[in-house]
Amino acid sequence: MTASENGQYIWTHELATLHLLKEKAIYLAKENTLLLADTHFGKAAHFRKAGIPVPENIHLEDFARIHQLLGSTGASNVIFLGDLFHSDANESWYTLLEFIELHPNIRFQLVLGNHDILPGNIYENSPLEMHSSGLKLGNLLLSHEPQPSLGMDTLNICGHIHPGIVIKKNSKQRIRLPAFYYKNNSLIMPAFGQFTGLFSMDVKSAESIMVTTPERVIPIKLNNKVG
Q1: b vs e for 153-165, b when ≥16 Cβ sit within 10 Å of the residue's Cβ?
Q2: Alpha-carbon separation of residue 223 from 67, 146, 184, 219 (angstroms)
Q3: 96: Cβ–Cβ under 8 A, 6 or more apart, which residues?
Q4: Which of 24, 62, 72, 95 could be a cystine partner for 190, CB 3.0 to 4.6 Å?
Q5: Average pLDDT for residues 165-188, to the nearest whole number?
Q6: For residue 121, what is the enclosing H or E element?
Q7: 3-class DSSP state for residue 194?
């Protein structure tokens, strides 16, 4: 389990070796695949429709980060682990399609999440490959929500919860950081989208926790040992 020069953290599990990226993504080197969870594209427009002023460029920055990750990893496959799009169709959906079309050599797949509620024909007419339930990838089970009752021969990678960890800087200051949270053979990814909240997780019950900062991924607990 080692950190690398570009701020990623190479996390070795019995069933897989994962590159945990500071951009809140996972790179699977063997499969040349990039995993992203909870982008929630379209959420800004959804809020604006409700009269809440939120700038659209927050999503454009997320697209730019994906583009940068495709360049830095050389990934040929992107799998979104649910909540790709936040709600009803709006102009952000067409921005997403344009982004996909700008990368014709990349395979884009979506494991449906609870916010992926667009009509079926919209998905069918998109370049996305759809998976209504978990997607098996060797020893990995990719899903939106954590899967119960997993066998020891399966590592579940999922999203949905938007895990965060509260860290005390001193007696008066606390910060919350997005985190990769591992427990019971499930690795829960931090939400990729910037326009998402954080759910504070219990550090004591976790087996491993790796927090993300703009500079790097930092392990604060590994195999039940606090670092």
Answers
A1: ebbbbbbbbbbbb
A2: 33, 19, 11, 11
A3: 41, 42, 63, 84, 85
A4: 24
A5: 88
A6: helix 120-124
A7: coil
Tokens 């995993």 belong to which residue?
A: 35
Q: Which two tokens stand for residue 192?
A: 């990729």
pLDDT tens, position by position, 37-96: 999 887 655 544 544 455 556 678 899 999 999 999 999 999 999 998 866 666 778 889
Can you tell me whether residue 181 is helix, strand or coil? strand
The three-state (H, E, C) secondary structure of 37-105, written as one string: CCCCECHHHHHHHCCCCCCCHHHHHHHHHHHHHHHHHCCCEEEECCCCECCCCCHHHHHHHHHHHCCCC
What the block records as the tokens of 18 is 């994962």
- Buried residues in 26-40 as b, exposed as e (16+ CB within 10 A): bbbeebebbbbbbbb
**Residue-range domains of the chain with CATH:** 2-226 (3.60.21)
Tokens at 63, concatenated: 């697209």
